[in-house]
Amino acid sequence: MNGAMASAACGSSTSPLLPAVAPAASAKSSACPSKKTTATFPRRTVWCRAAGGRDDDGLLWLPRRDMLSTLGGVAAGLVGYPGLASGAAVEANPVESCRKGDKVNENLVKCTDPNREFPCPPPSPAKAVDFTPESTVKRVRQPAHLLSPENQEKYKEAIAKMKALPAAHPLSFAAQAAIHESYCDGHYRYDPAEKNRPFDVHFSWIFAPWHRMYIHFYEKALGQLIGDDTFALPYWNWDAPAGMVVPPLFRDPFGNPLYNKNREQSRLDKLVDLDFLNAPTDAPLIPFDGPKDDKYEALVNKNLCTMYQQQIRGGKGARAFLGEKLCSDADARLKEINARSKKRGGQKVKRDKTKSQGSLERMAHTALHVWVGRSGPPEGTTCSADTGGVLGHNGAYTCNNDMGFLGSAGRDPLFYSHHSNVDRMWHIWSTKLGGEGFKDPEWLDASFVFYDGVENPRPVRIKFRDVLDTRNLGYTYDAESEKELPWVASKINPLVPRGKGAPRAAAPAKALAYPLTLAAGEVVEVAGVAVPAKQASKVGPDHTEYAGSFAVVPSSKAGGGTLEGRITLFVDDVLDDVMGDRDTTVDVVLVPRTDEEIKLHLPPTIENQSQN
């Protein structure tokens, strides 16, 4: 495994009740609202402890209801698979969420790249037409491992015909893969003249609806190629124990258009690990068809707990599940933010760091991209075209292809069935789990243009509001497979004993100074943590102390291969478990799991989601 990520555990330590102290700056944008402004809420309180090097080291009262924890100003190298998670601190992130997200359309971003030939969609002489909702639901997506032999052959036939289309055809397999490459590997830009301002459909509230649109037109094209408007894209059912392996349909290498040689062969017939990027690098692989022993059952249980964390415990609210707003108005806002920060004696912020993934993107989705992709070049060699590497738009080769690299992920047919299940997770969240998307018009009216119609391709403009209900797109998911979702009732347990007689952690030896660089194997304690440092690396999605983690699929990035942004996690249930009804301080343990540099520019913050 090429590197890993970082995770965090929330803990609590009982503390004398001290008078609430207002921060030095105005309380307008504080992540810990004052007692005065929030007194109408039920009194379940959290003390936010300042985390080193600030001039407002007080304790602020915060009602515990729909809380979001935020780690601000993170810069992480993408060669490994970096990640972090968060706890609580006293000051709001100076780089606040956008006042308004971008209303994205074809006029805001352009596909171009000054570095090399680019995979932009071919131009069309015809003007884009607006999307018209489907009148009936004709397509029912089914689990790939349960697909009938007849439908398996239909799928192979459709993919073979798509691959046979000329690459210049906008609905060829090559062109479909290029769509993901262009939108996800830095080819779309806010301003083509500014190399360091790429647009990406990841790391924000764009992720889920954009991929739903993309997969929809891909699915329709496959049906058109075989003359079957009921054809539905099967999904890789990795959230159920029976589907926790790469489906056999994709593994047969003989004359199979669904097979891809650029996969990590050693993992294809193994039980998947949905928390793969948090696992030890020497963790043994477990055969899927092997004995169902304690190790097998333990990993299945951890996978189900990961899904529970992603969909339920950590996915409460649109921001937590779908991600933060997308902002491009960085320059104007940074001037204002830095002026305000200067008055506080704070540091100057160099770039906009507001973007943040939701749990839908950063958990099972990302882990399985990396699980399927190659782990690197053959041992003893360097990555190049000769060793099977792919060229990113930055001119560098990567050997984590295909699924393990955003620029090449769409070249693997498994990618589309993987994302069909990611889409299903959004569908389940929106229907069975009662999740509600954003109401911002900037999100609802964001639009993209895709080609439709194999015989006579035409560009179609489709908005996010068009895709909130899959029935508008003419498809749904197999109801039989959703009667029982095994992860809904997952049971997670504390790693550290709670209650009377439980061990109390000592305060850190020294205050933390920001920016703070995190190194693999070095557990960082913020304030007085309740999870002892020696146990922090053991915290996972099957533990109540687990606040979350962050990981990305590698891509070509300008500016030294770093991703800058912030991490937002829903922590209400975590606080319930580690604190109960007590008034306590909330602390955090940061556990970096990558050999690449992770830099934390600001201390963690906590805010009330219901006030946003």
TrEMBL record:
<dbReference type="GO" id="GO:0004097">
    <property type="term" value="F:catechol oxidase activity"/>
</dbReference>
<dbReference type="InterPro" id="IPR008922">
    <property type="entry name" value="Di-copper_centre_dom_sf"/>
</dbReference>
<dbReference type="GO" id="GO:0046872">
    <property type="term" value="F:metal ion binding"/>
</dbReference>
<protein>
    <recommendedName>
        <fullName>Tyrosinase copper-binding domain-containing protein</fullName>
    </recommendedName>
</protein>
<keyword id="KW-1015">Disulfide bond</keyword>
<dbReference type="Pfam" id="PF12142">
    <property type="entry name" value="PPO1_DWL"/>
</dbReference>
<dbReference type="InterPro" id="IPR002227">
    <property type="entry name" value="Tyrosinase_Cu-bd"/>
</dbReference>
<keyword id="KW-0560">Oxidoreductase</keyword>
<keyword id="KW-0186">Copper</keyword>
<keyword id="KW-0883">Thioether bond</keyword>
<dbReference type="InterPro" id="IPR022740">
    <property type="entry name" value="Polyphenol_oxidase_C"/>
</dbReference>
<dbReference type="Pfam" id="PF12143">
    <property type="entry name" value="PPO1_KFDV"/>
</dbReference>
<feature type="compositionally biased region" description="Basic residues">
    <location>
        <begin position="340"/>
        <end position="353"/>
    </location>
</feature>
<feature type="region of interest" description="Disordered">
    <location>
        <begin position="340"/>
        <end position="359"/>
    </location>
</feature>
<feature type="domain" description="Tyrosinase copper-binding">
    <location>
        <begin position="412"/>
        <end position="423"/>
    </location>
</feature>
<dbReference type="InterPro" id="IPR022739">
    <property type="entry name" value="Polyphenol_oxidase_cen"/>
</dbReference>
<comment type="similarity">
    <text>Belongs to the tyrosinase family.</text>
</comment>
<keyword id="KW-0479">Metal-binding</keyword>
<dbReference type="Pfam" id="PF00264">
    <property type="entry name" value="Tyrosinase"/>
</dbReference>
<dbReference type="InterPro" id="IPR050316">
    <property type="entry name" value="Tyrosinase/Hemocyanin"/>
</dbReference>
